[in-house]
Structures are given as structure tokens and as C-alpha cells.
Design goal:
The structure is a homodimer. By secondary structure, chain A is an alpha+beta fold. Helices cover about 20% and strands about 25% of the residues of chain A. In chain A, about 40% of the residues are buried.
């Protein structure tokens, strides 16, 4: 799977768009956009709601997804479960309009601030944020830990929206 | 490197703390904390400032870092550059007190909301957030792209704080 992903990404990478990584100083202190993709050709992406600032999801982009996001202002990712370019909201209509795209110090992580269309949800399970559960902090029992819910109800019915498409969650 | 990491993590993983991943329904809709670690034994972690909601950093945790974070309420990570457990702030004093720890739908990403000690900075380059630069959205030039700075000045001098310790940024 990783090998297929790597080959796919090599095929779609448009290397001229991004600067080569030449020095730590250039990467950390310069103005060159020189993102670092991992061995599978992917970079981690945190997406937050531009209004509430809540973290909506963590996704991954290949070079093509990153460049399309920059060019169109619509969030694109690389779907690791489906192994394809993924325009967020293509099926659900819950697209993400990018207000700001930031890059971190060593340029191996992206932060998108977005406005989500429609109901504003970004989670395939139906919740607004993928992070609808918390783990109790300060629990010294050694586990197991019981999750606590922070969203009372789903914003949509996944069966109605996605039908019988394969669930992206992998065990 | 990946193999060494995997072996290290196998050695330190306390498997009884976390539930086994048995079904999609259990992982997405249940109360079992069943985090998914990748092939290197790591899980991605987004850390935000509990006051400003800004994304401060993206780090990675192995099982031990995750459990220590839960137990102590102080953010621990796995340093991929140094290949060791990393109590954030151990050198700089800029520790992160965890206000909330959330897990996402398929339980392969963690979100920490933290209060940072001292100056409130979380970036080894000296800025408050690691995400101190943005990429212009809507740029259809095809690149290269010029980064824009969003923090005017550093909160500390990295040389004074870290001395001649190796820079964690990898090219």
C-alpha cells in the first residue's frame, strides 16, 4: 500500500511548484515554500474552523492536493483509505473554503483555517468535528480509559449522505 | 531509523492501557479508548493554545508519551529527530499543561488544548506558534510561492535556550 501510494504521488507531484530544501535556515527562517513530504509522499494537515477555532480534522495531502488547495482555495487531501485525491465535500457537499493556509517551522505540517459549507460538519461519522470525544486527563489508573462525548447529536445521517460507500476508518 | 523507532516503541508500549481495536463501530461510536499507532508506533498530535485557540504545533506520540500525558497532565511527545521520549519544555521550561485531550473519529489523531508555561511559546525557532508563516491562497501562478510572516519577533533566543543542541529540523 505504501509503495503504491509512493508511486502514485511521484506520478502526480509537480516539483517545480515547491522550493528544494537546501538548508535549515532557508526552511525555518526564509520565505521559500519548501514543504517536506514523508516517505509516502504525504504531509500532515490540521484543519480548524475559522469561526470557532475548533480543530475539525487531521488529514494528509500529497503534492497535488496541496497545490490544488493553494490554487482553488478549496481543501483537497489525499485519501489514505481510498488511495486517491480527495476534494473534501465532493460527495457530501460539505466543502471547506480555505481562509488561511499556514506552514510550520520545519515545513512538515500544514494548518488550514476553513469555512465549511452547508451544516458546517467535517466528520464522516456525522459530527461537526472529528474530535467529538475526550480522554480524562489526570487519570492515574493505568487504563483502560473511558471516552467522554462533547457533541450531543450528529449533524447528518452518514447512510443518507454516503450510502454504501466503504467506511474510511481502518482497524 | 524507522526500524529502530519501531523496536523502541514496542519496548515501551504498555498495551494494557489501551483497548484493542475490534470493530469500526467500537472505534467510532464507543467509549473505548483504542488509539491507532502507525507502523512506527506513533500517533499524530495537534496542540492548540487553550486561550487563543491557535495551533501551536503538530507533534507525534508513542504509546508511552500518550499515557504519560494522560497521567501527568503535562504534554509528552516522541521526538522523531532525537528518537526519544520528550517531555515538552524539559530544556526550555516552556511546558504544556493539558486542559483537554481529545481523540478523533477513527482514533488515529490526538488534539491537546494546553496552557504553555513562561512566555507561552512552543516553537524551537523562538516564535509563539510553529505556524508563523502562511502561503498565499488563490495563487494560480503554479509557484514558487513566497511565505508571509505572521509573528513580528521571536519570544526568546534559541541559542540562549538550547545552546549547541542539534536542531530538530531535518531536510
Amino acid at each position: 500500500m505504501a509503495l503504491i501510494n509512493r508511486l502514485n504521488n511521484m506520478g502526480t507531484k509537480r516539483s517545480s511548484a515547491f522550493a528544494a530544501r537546501l538548508s535549515v535556515e532557508q526552511v525555518e527562517e526564509g520565505q521559500d515554500f519548501a514543504p517536506k513530504f514523508d516517505v509516502d509522499g504525504l504531509i500532515a494537515c490540521v484543519t480548524t474552523d475559522a469561526d470557532t477555532s475548533d480543530v475539525l480534522m487531521v488529514g494528509y495531502m500529497n503534492a497535488e492536493a496541496l497545490q490544488r488547495t493553494i490554487e482553488t482555495g478549496e481543501a483537497h487531501y489525499w485519501s489514505r483509505s481510498r488511495q486517491c485525491l480527495w476534494l473534501k465535500g465532493a460527495t457530501s457537499g460539505l466543502t471547506q473554503a480555505v481562509v488561511e493556509l499556514r506552514i510550520d517551522d520545519d515545513q512538515d505540517a500544514v494548518w488550514l483555517r476553513v469555512n465549511v459549507a452547508g451544516s458546517g460538519a467535517s466528520c464522516h461519522v456525522g459530527y461537526r468535528s472529528c474530535f467529538y470525544r475526550s480522554v480524562p486527563v489526570g487519570d492515574t489508573s493505568g487504563g483502560p480509559y473511558a471516552l467522554v462525548y462533547h457533541e450531543d447529536s450528529k449533524t447528518f445521517d452518514p447512510i443518507q449522505v454516503y450510502g454504501d460507500a466503504p467506511n474510511p476508518t481502518q482497524l
